[in-house]
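[step 3/7] fold_predict: job queued, chain A
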Amino acid sequence: MDDLKSEGGRADRGERVFYGWLIVGVLFFISIIDGGFTYTFSTFLKPLTQEFGWSRAETATAFSLYLFVAGLVLPVWGWLIDHVGARWVFLLSALIDGVALLLLSTVHSLTGFYALYLFLGVGLAGIGPMPVGKVITQWFVAKRGLAMGIALVGASGGGLVLVPLCGFLIAEFSWRLGYQVLAALSLFGMLPLVWFFVINTPEEKGLKPLGQNSPQNSPTKNHTPVTTEQEPKQDARDWTLRQALSTPTFWLLGVAFCLGLMAAGAVHAHQVAFFQDAGYSLELASTITGISLGMSMAGRFLAGWISEHVRHPHALLAECLCMQAVGIGALLYLESLGFWALALFVPLFGLGYGGMIVLWPLTVGHDFGRQSFGAIAGVLGTLGLSLGGALGPIVAGAFYDNTGSYDWAFVSCVGVFFVGAGAAVMAPEPRAV
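[step 4/7] structure written:
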C-alpha cells in the first residue's frame, strides 16, 4: 500500500500533513522576496534623482519599463508554466532577478538603469501572483482561497520588512548596498527554497488536490455518488485561452485590473518621495509605506477567505478598488489632517491593494478553471501590467515635474480606481458559447 496516496488530498498515516500546505509556506517566503523587488523602488527614487540629476519622470520610467516588460512576458511564462511546470519558471526567474539586482548596484547611467529594470521585469513575471496562483490552483480545490491568500500575503510582508530596511540601508550607507542585499535574497534565499521544496502538482507526489472528489464517490453500477454539504464544488469547466478571450467577463476584468494597477503603480512608485516632500525623513517615509504594505497582508488574507464564501468575486474586486480610491483621496488632505489622513490611507489603501492582487489569480481560477490557468492569467496580467501598471508611474512623475506636487496625480488615481470598480461590477459570470 502506498502511504503517499490520498483521497481528496487528505494524507494517510504515512503523511499526516497535506504537502500542499508546506508548499503554501514556501510560496509565502518566495512572495516576501518578490514583494521586496517591487515595493522598494520608491525608496530608491529620490536618492537616485539627487545623485544623478535625473527628473522624477525619468527615474520612474524605469519602474514603468519594469512593469511593462513583466506584463509583456507573462503569457510566455504562463505557457511555460502550463507545459513545463512552475518550479523551473521560479528557478530561472530567481536567477534573472538576482543577477539584475546585483548589476543595478553598479549602474552609472540612465540607459543602463533602464536596461537592468527591463531585465528585472522579465524575472518578476515568473515569481509573481500568476505562477503562485498556478501552483495553488493545482494543489487545492477546497481551501483554495485561503491557500492563495496565505501564499500571496508574503509579498506584502516583503514590503513591510524590506521597504524600511532599504530605507535604512540607503540613509545610513548607500543605495548600492540596498540593491546588493535584495540580490542576495534572490540568489541565496529564493533559489534554495524552490529547488528543495516546490513540486508542480500533487500527482507528482502521489497525491490529489485537496478537496478533489475521491474515486469512491464516482458513480458505479451499484452505487450513486455520495455528496455532502461540506464537499467542495469542483470547477464547472476548464476554459481554453481562446474561449476565455471570447467572453465579456475576461475583457471587463482586464479593464478593472488594468486601471487598478495603473493607479496603484503610480502610488507605489512615488509614495516614499511624496512623504519626503511633505517633510518626513527617508526612514519615516519608508516605514509608513512599509506599514501600508503590511496592511495589504491582511487584505490578501481576507480577500482569499471571503472569496470562499461569496458566489461572485467580481463585486469583491470592485470593493477593493473603491477602498484604494478613498485611501488615496485622504492623502490629498495630508497637510491639513496630518495623522488622520495617514490613519485613513494606510488601512484603506493597504487592505484594498492586497485584496486586488490576490483576486487576480482567484478570479481566473473561479471563472475559467485550471487547465489553461497560466495562459489566461498571463494575458490578463499583460493587460494589467503592460498597459496599466507601466503607465501609472510615468504619468505621476510627469504631473510632479510639471506642477511641483502630486495633487493632480492622486486626483487622477482616485478617478481611475472608481472606473475600474465599475468595470468589475459589470463583469458577468462567463457562459459557454
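[step 5/7] annotate
The chain has one domain: 19-210+238-426.
Confidence is low (pLDDT under 50) at residues 1-7, 214-236.
exit 0
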